[in-house]
């Protein structure tokens, strides 16, 4: 009996306090497909607390539109500026809460892990990650956008897809003998 193909929607987020990227990946069986990618532009909002409110509202809106099953979010990395790290952590926390309020499980990935999963190089540039995702997921130039925060977010979603393991195909076989045992009509005598 053939099992129905399972579908999963993964929302990826690259947190930011000026530009926050998001990408939505649909996985049908073992095939990933980009649904959308974009950014939440926060540069015109001067009040840091209103930025957090805006992040919460926009992430809730993205969740309502695409109904993701899971959230993959990039972890902030420690830089030299502690204030920047705190602001980024707040933005990430608000995005996480927006997902948890909708009972969406959250997985956090280090930037190094995401880059390694996409390019095989943990020190890859944003451009290298974007180009690799563009090729693997067949993203047209017109959808790439001016900000790489969107492809960073899509990278988090794709990394999560790779981490969840490839679902077994309905007709899985342990080898040729198993295949022939299940399909005796294929044997030529």
From TrEMBL:
Names of the cofactor(s): Mg(2+)
Domain of life of the native organism: Bacteria
Cofactor, free-text remark: Binds 2 Mg(2+) ion per subunit.
Cellular localisation: Cytoplasm
Residues that hold Mg(2+) 2 according to the record: 74
Its EC number(s): 3.1.21.10
InterPro entries on file: RNaseH-like_sf, RNaseH_sf, X-over_junc_endoDNase_Mg_BS, X-over_junc_endoDNase_RuvC
Any coiled-coil regions, as ranges: none
Function of the protein: The RuvA-RuvB-RuvC complex processes Holliday junction (HJ) DNA during genetic recombination and DNA repair. Endonuclease that resolves HJ intermediates. Cleaves cruciform DNA by making single-stranded nicks across the HJ at symmetrical positions within the homologous arms, yielding a 5'-phosphate and a 3'-hydroxyl group; requires a central core of homology in the junction. The consensus cleavage sequence is 5'-(A/T)TT(C/G)-3'. Cleavage occurs on the 3'-side of the TT dinucleotide at the point of strand exchange.
Subunit structure: Homodimer which binds Holliday junction (HJ) DNA. The HJ becomes 2-fold symmetrical on binding to RuvC with unstacked arms; it has a different conformation from HJ DNA in complex with RuvA. In the full resolvosome a probable DNA-RuvA(4)-RuvB(12)-RuvC(2) complex forms which resolves the HJ.
Designated name of the protein: Crossover junction endodeoxyribonuclease RuvC
Organism: Phocaeicola intestinalis
Organismal lineage: Bacteria, Pseudomonadati, Bacteroidota, Bacteroidia, Bacteroidales
Primary gene name: ruvC
């Amino acid at each position: 009996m053939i099992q129905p193909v399972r579908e999963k929607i993964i929302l990826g987020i690259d947190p930011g306090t000026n530009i926050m990227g998001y990408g939505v990946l649909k996985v049908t069986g073992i095939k990933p497909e980009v649904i959308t990618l974009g950014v939440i532009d926060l540069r015109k909002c001067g009040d840091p607390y209103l930025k957090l409110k805006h992040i919460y509202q926009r992430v809730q809106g993205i969740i309502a539109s695409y109904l993701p099953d899971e959230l993959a979010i990039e972890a902030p990395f420690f830089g030299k500026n502690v204030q920047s790290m705190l602001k980024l952590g707040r933005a990430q926390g608000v995005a996480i809460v927006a997902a948890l309020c909708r009972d969406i499980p959250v997985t956090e990935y280090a930037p190094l892990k995401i880059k390694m999963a996409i390019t095989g190089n943990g020190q890859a540039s944003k451009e290298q990650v974007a180009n690799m995702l563009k090729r693997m997921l067949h993203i047209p130039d017109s959808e790439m956008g001016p900000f790489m925060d969107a492809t960073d977010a899509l990278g988090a979603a794709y990394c999560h897809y790779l981490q969840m393991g490839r679902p077994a195909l309905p007709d899985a076989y342990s080898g040729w003998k198993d295949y022939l045992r299940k399909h005796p009509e294929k044997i030529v005598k």
